[in-house]
Design brief:
Rossmann fold; eight-stranded mixed beta sheet; four-stranded parallel beta sheet; disordered N terminus; binds asparagine
Amino acid sequence: MLLSLLAVPLLMVSRPLPRVLCLHTGGTLGMDAEQSYEPDGVDGHVHLKPGTGGSFSPAGALRPGAMLNNLLSAVPELRAYANLRLEIPFNLDSCRVGPPEWVKLAKILHRNRDHYDAFLIVHGTDTMAYTASALSLLLAGFKKPIVMTGSQLPLSMPRSDARQNLIDSVTCATSFFAPPHTQLQEVAICFGGRLMRGNRAQKVHSSTYRAFDSINYPPLATLGVDVDWNMSYLLKVKGVYRPRFNLDTRVIRVPIIPGCDPRTAYGDLKARNVRGVVLESFGVGNMPDLPRLGWLPWLKKTVKQGIKVYLSSQCASGPLHPELYKSGKAAMDMGVEAGPQMTPEAAVIKLMLCLAYPDIPLGVPIAGEL
Ligand code: ASN
C-alpha cells in the first residue's frame, strides 16, 4: 500500500527535457521549395532560393524565432525530444563555408558547452564532412554530442528527407536521456538513417538520400524501426578538453597522376605560399619512382623547403605501407609522413591544425580521425 502511494507521485514527476542548441548554418534544408532561376540565367539550371518560406527578413538574414517556428511546425515531434533553442550563425550554401565559419562555429560551441546537453548543426551537405572534421579536431575532447545534419531536398518539399534526418539527429544527440542511455561524445553526421563519425564520413552521392558514407569506419548507429547503436565504435574521450581556434589554411591536396610531372604541374610550392601537402599516392603508398618522372625530385625539393607532406592513398580504404615500395620508402626517407588512412577531408584539416600547432602529431589521433 505504502509502496503504491509512493509510486504515484514518482510516476507523475517527468524528467526535464534535454537542452539542445540548434545551429542553423544554411544548406538545402532551409531553402525555399519554390524554384527560381539565376537572375542572369547564364547556366540555365534550376536553383533553390536561399530562404525558408517567408522567414527571410528584408536584410537577407534569417530570424531565429521564425526559423524555429518553421522547424517546429514542420517537425513538431522535435518538441518531444528536447528543449530546442535555435541560433543562426550564418545562412550559407555550404560551398561558401570554410575556415572562418568553422572557427566561428567552434567558438559558439565552446561558449555554450556548459549550458546545453547536446548540439545539433544544420548544414549544407556539400562540405559537411569538412566542417565535421574541423569541429572534431578544433574541439577535441569536447565530450558532448555534436550532431550535424542537412538534407537533399528542402524541408518544405513533400518528399524531403529533412524531416527524418532532423528527427534522427535529435534522437541521437539526446540518446543519453532515454534508454539505453548511450553516451555520444563526439562530432557525428546523421544522414539517411545512419549516424557516422564526422571525421570519417564523406558525401558519396549527389542525389540519393543515403548521401553520406563512412567507408573506413562502421556507422555509430543505424536508425530503422529501432536505433541500433554500435557501442564499441563510439569515441571514448580520455584526454582533457583543449579547444583550439587556429588553422593554417595553406594546404593543398595533390593526387599523383600517371604522366603528370609535378615540377611543371605544381612547381615551387613555397613560392606559391603553400605550407602543407596531402599527397595522394597509389595503393599502399606507391608513386612513380624514376627520377625523370619528376615525383621524387620534386618531393625532395618540397620537403627541403620545410613544407609538411602527408602521404595518403587514392584508395578509399585499406592500410598504408609505403615502405613496401622503393618510391614510398624513398619518400619516407626524405621526411614525408605517412599515417593510417584519413579521409581527404580530415587529412587536410588535420594538416591545417598541425601547421598551426606544431606540437600536435599528424599521425596520432586526437578525435578518432585515424
Ligand atoms: N548546395 C547545398 C549545400 O551544400 C547542398 C545541400 O545542402 N543538399 O549547401
